[in-house]
Design a protein that fits this description.
With about 425 residues, the chain is an alpha/beta fold. The protein is built from 15 helices and 16 strands. The strands form two sheets. Strands 1, 2, 3, 4, 5, 14, 15 and 16 form an eight-stranded mixed β-sheet that branches. Strands 6-7-8-9-10-11-12-13 form an eight-stranded parallel β-sheet. The longest helix has 18 residues, at about 200-215. The radius of gyration is 21 Å and the shape is globular. The structure holds N-(iminomethyl)-L-glutamic acid and fe (iii) ion (FE).
Length: about 425
């Protein structure tokens, strides 16, 4: 199948074929190219060519060609959501109400709720139920323009349940057109059976879970929740050391509620990304900027929990590479809506629309190591793009917030 989209009001996120920077950092995030009055040709699942309507070569071969007239609409590269916990069982609106009555996320966790609530639900769910519930969310994010997604484990916290979660995540990659990457987050919390034996659980992670999961190729990345009452920076070193030995690259939850030494440990292990960073310690923005590690902000989590937003301007001023992701999960961000995340990045984090678009697509792709194929409109890239509803400008997308701006989506060169 070939697709030609013509009369595009603005073809956004265009990148020159010669530009093979893995990611954009600091000022570079404002480099965002939009071709006005454009066409885009897709062939064999890839972006074949594009240009302005004034220089449109016309159609010489109509065979297997689908022509879309995008009059008045924009085309964007599909979002790359580099941090989610998309596979889960049940829901946690009871805790949501508890928080509205005044309890904090941390207090709820101390009472055995929070992550452990989802662990209980996930352990008792069978794989078929889990696939069904997770597929529904996968189609939801597709409908809102996401084409690639990272999915973490971490609600199983025992070998069999973690394997179950990662296999379900794999099914999402098989059964939907989403490009997926998987992350082993065994160190998300201490499971109830190891409540008073953190070292015992870390031993289980290091000696059994990591080797088995890496051995079966069920994850590309390793994650840990580095936070007070969870895993500290010493635990993080031990876990990352083991992960890296088995070929899992780090993507770390750090500085959500408090500053630990976790950022520097993650940087020492060449983390692909450090995520959350609602609180930044002295010198941490500069330390991140000095590396290839991507800082990932999760504005839907900040909105939902009422915690600070990641200081994007400080990170960008320091020259760091910044990505935006949803954190889609049942406890701290029950939304996988990248459009809303982009709006919040502008409204609350003072990112300009161009910066937010780059953070949500190009740098999101880099935070999943998909930068060679995803996150931009570049010849040869996988054809993952969405056509918006009619809109006057690209900035209208984050400005007119809270609706779904996506009218049609193309993934792998197929109209979804
Ligand atoms: O990224 N902070 C740790 N993990 C998730 C929340 C998990 C949950 O509450 O279920 C997060 O916010
Ligand atoms: Fe998370």
């Amino acid at each position: 199948l070939k697709i030609l989209i013509k009369n595009i009001r603005g073809l956004a996120g265009v990148v020159d074929a010669a530009d093979n920077r893995k990611m954009l950092r600091g000022n570079e995030l404002s480099e965002y190219h939009i071709i006005q009055d454009a066409w885009l040709a897709i062939e064999d699942g890839k972006i074949a060519d594009f240009g302005t309507m004034a220089n449109w070569p016309g159609i010489s071969d109509w065979r297997d060609l689908e022509v879309i007239d995008a009059e008045g609409r924009f085309v964007f590269p599909a979002w790359c959501d580099s941090h989610t916990h998309l596979v889960w069982a049940g829901s946690r609106e009871v805790e949501f109400e508890d928080r509205l009555r005044g309890l904090s996320y941390e207090e709820i966790a101390k009472r055995g709720g929070g992550i452990l609530n989802s662990v209980e639900k996930l352990r008792s769910a069978d794989a078929a139920q889990l696939i069904e519930a997770s597929l529904e969310r996968a189609y939801e994010i597709i409908a809102s323009g996401t084409g690639a997604v990272e999915i973490k484990s971490g609600y199983g916290l025992d070998l069999d349940s973690e394997l179950k979660m990662l296999r379900v995540a794999g099914e999402i990659g098989q059964q939907t057109p989403l490009t997926i990457k998987r992350t082993f987050l065994g160190a998300h919390a201490l499971p109830p059976e190891y409540k008073n034996d953190k070292q015992g659980y870390i031993k289980l992670l290091v000696e059994q879970m990591i080797p088995r999961i890496a051995g079966e190729g069920l994850a590309e990345y390793i994650d840990a929740f580095c936070e007070r009452n969870y895993f500290d920076e010493k635990d993080l070193s031990v876990i990352l050391e083991a992960g890296v030995r088995y070929g899992l690259k780090p993507k770390i939850h750090v500085n959500q509620f408090s500053v630990s030494g976790g950022v520097s440990v993650a940087l020492n292990y060449d983390a692909v990304s450090v995520d959350h960073l609602e609180i930044l310690g002295e010198g941490e923005a500069e330390a991140i900027a000095a590396t290839d590690t991507i800082a990932t902000a999760l504005p839907l989590c900040s909105l939902f929990l009422g915690i600070p937003y990641t200081p994007a301007r400080a990170l960008l001023n320091a020259g760091a590479a910044l990505a935006i992701a949803t954190d889609f999960n049942p406890g701290s961000a029950p939304s996988g809506n990248m459009n809303l995340a982009v709006s919040l990045a502008c409204i609350q984090m003072k990112m300009l629309p161009a910066e937010a678009f780059n953070a949500a697509a190009r740098n999101g792709a880099a935070a999943m190591e998909l930068h060679d194929t995803h996150g931009s409109i570049r010849i040869g890239n996988q054809a993952n793009a969405f056509i918006t509803k009619p809109m006057p400008s690209a900035a209208f997308l984050p400005y007119y917030f809270g609706i779904n701006p996506v009218e049609r989506l193309i993934l792998n060169g197929q109209i979804i």
